[in-house]
Structures are given as structure tokens and as C-alpha cells.
Amino acid sequence: MRICFRSILLLICIIVSMTCISADKNIDNEIEAYVLMEAETGTILEAKNENVRINAGYLTKLMSILVVAKHIESGELAIDDEITASDKVSGTKGSVIWLQSGDKISVDELLKAVIIGNANDAMTVLAEAVSGDVDTFVMDMNGEAFDIGLRDSYFVSPYGYADEREYTTAYDMALICSRLSKYVFLQPYFKTWRDFIKNEQVELVSENDLTRNYEPHIGFKACHSSEDRYFLAEGGINSGGNTFISVVLGAENEDISFKKGRELLKRAFSSYKVVSTEFPEEMLVPLKVKNGECSAVEIGIKEQGKAAVPKGDKEVRTKVVIPEYITAPVYEGQPVGVVAFYNGDTLVFETDIMIKSSVRALTLNYVLKQTLLKMIEK
């Protein structure tokens, strides 16, 4: 019996395709948690166990870098500042650049050492420069974490040593990365795979291979734990200038970690867009006020925003909720309604409608005064 070569080739292609689909589905079983987020809006596009608390090892340093970046942006610390290492750098565990007490080194080289080389002694010097000592720096990390909305993270050191007391989540780590993506001055460090510091005497090599072989890359970090679990926080920017973040926690090997991170970002680029959720204030008529010194008051939108939605979906629809009237007294900035934006049945953005100026309640003295004024005018 003659077998057609083209039929065999087609059958092989089908088998390979089915194998790839099966492999893509099974890869999730080899990962503890992941999340895909659009950075500007904070929208979660895909996720697994995104709120499960996990010790993410050296990814902790991203929170440390965020605290340092905030101080640089505020001017409390400068890139070209030279800092003297204290005796606290002696005996530092893990990756180091062999700093000794009394060594002078710039913030620029310290950032390179921490971001590219994961150096713990360099992190100690930065922590002391920012907060005075490491313990206070850890308190600042947790304070900043709370301020930016992290509710499932707790840090016990700036380094990311294995410690059962320390935890974060894929979602919280993505929030950290979304903040880091706004510090443009950090991107050259995050984009560098290999560099030298200390008069070319110390070589730094990033564990994140995506810094050298993934074109959309803008940051952030890859690492592994002593239990051979692999972690990745990766940021990529699409042709439209939108930043997406993939966080993969607890992958069984490095290949799975990088593969899932790239796969998530690829889907973000191909399947999602960022749309405006601006609402024209001129469509809001003054709100009636009962028992007030004025009969109506101007209202406005608290904030305009954006939303990440699937590319093929229809335009975002708007729903405005405002009462027929409000009873005095009312105050400037008081919320009186909401504007909600929906993609299908999914709420993608919501903002308050606010009172633009205060209106006092009517009093007997005010009524008598107005009555007298009208009589005088006649």
C-alpha cells in the first residue's frame, strides 16, 4: 500500500502541534504562582495563585531598590554621591563585591552591584545611606510597601535571604515592578546583562538572561532559591509604549520560569490594549441642593484614567450614578456619585464625582437677611 508523503508530514505537524498545546497547559503545574499585569492601570490580565503568600527569595531586592530609587528621585541621594562602607559589610553572606570597611564607592556602582550582580554588601551600604542602619531600612521597606498598597508582603531584610518570616505574592511583586518601571533612570541598570566596577576589578553578570536576548525587556530580576525554585519578575514594553509585567514564582526550573514570563508578555502584546476612560465634565449638570444657601452646586470628576482591555472587544461603556439632589451642608471635595467604566460586564475603572465648592445650610439669620435685602432693593 502506498502512503502519501504529504499525509505523513501533515500528521507529524498535527502531533507536534498537539504536543506543544499540551506542554503549554502542563507548564502551569510546575509553577507555584504567576501574574500578568498592565503597569499603568494595575489591571490583572492573567493569574494563578496571585495572592498566595510565598517567600520569593532575592526578588525582595526589588522592594529595596524601590526605596532607594524614591530617595534618589527626591534628591536625598544622588547617583554620583560617594559613600563610605561601614564595618557592617564584613562577613556578608551570599553574592558580594568584596567591600571592606572604609571603602569609598559611588551610588552608581552600588546600584550596578545590586541590580546586575545581586551584591548583598552593596545593598548594606545603600541601606545605611538611606536610613542610617539596616534595621531602620527594613522598617522603611515595610512602610513603603503599605503606602503603595501591598497587603500581603512582609520583609525582614533588604537582601532576600531564605527566611520563613518573609513573604510576598505574585500580585504584590507586580505592583512593586509597576512602580519601578516609572523610574526611567533605573532602566540602564536593569537592561545591562554584564558590567564591571571597582576599576574593572569586579565583574557583574545578571542572572536574568532576558536582559540580553529579549528585545522588549525593560527590567527587572531573575533568581533562584536554595530549594531550587526559580523566580522571575520581568517587564516588557510594546510598540504602543504600554508596559506589561509578568511575575513567575516558584518554577521548577529556570527554563520554565523564563518561558512562562515571555509567554505571558507575548499574549499581553498581542491580545490587550490600553484605552482612555476620560469622561467630559461638561456633561455633568449642576446638582440641586436642598436647604442650602445656594440652590445648586457644580460637580466634577475626581480623576481621569485608563484601562487595559482585550483588543477585539467593543468600546468601553460608561455608567454615571448621581443623586437627584443633595441636602446642605455640602463640602468641597465631597463625593456624591461615581462614573464607572465597563468592558462588557467587567468593571475596568471607577472614579468619584466630587462637589466643587461648599454650600452652607440655611439658617434663620440667613433667611431674614436675604428677605431684608430684597425689600430694600424694591
Describe the structure concisely.
This protein is an alpha+beta fold and 378 residues long. The chain is 32% helix and 26% strand.
Overview features:
alpha+beta; five-stranded antiparallel beta sheet; four-stranded antiparallel beta sheet; 18 strands; 26% strand; elongated
Explain this structure:
This protein is 32% helix and 26% strand. The chain has helices at residues 5-27, 61-73, 107-115, 120-131, 134-147, 170-180, 187-190, 210-213, 254-271, 364-377, and strands spanning 33-38, 43-48, 82-84, 104-106, 194-197, 202-205, 217-224, 230-237, 243-251, 272-276, 287-290, 296-297, 299-301, 306-310, 317-321, 325-327, 335-343, 346-355. A hairpin with a 5-residue loop joins strand 8 and strand 9 (243-251). Helix 2 crosses helix 4, helix 2 runs parallel beside helix 6 (170-180) and helix 3 (107-115) crosses helix 4 (120-131). The longest helix is centred in the first third of the chain and has 23 residues, at 5-27. Mean pLDDT is 90; it is low at 15-23.
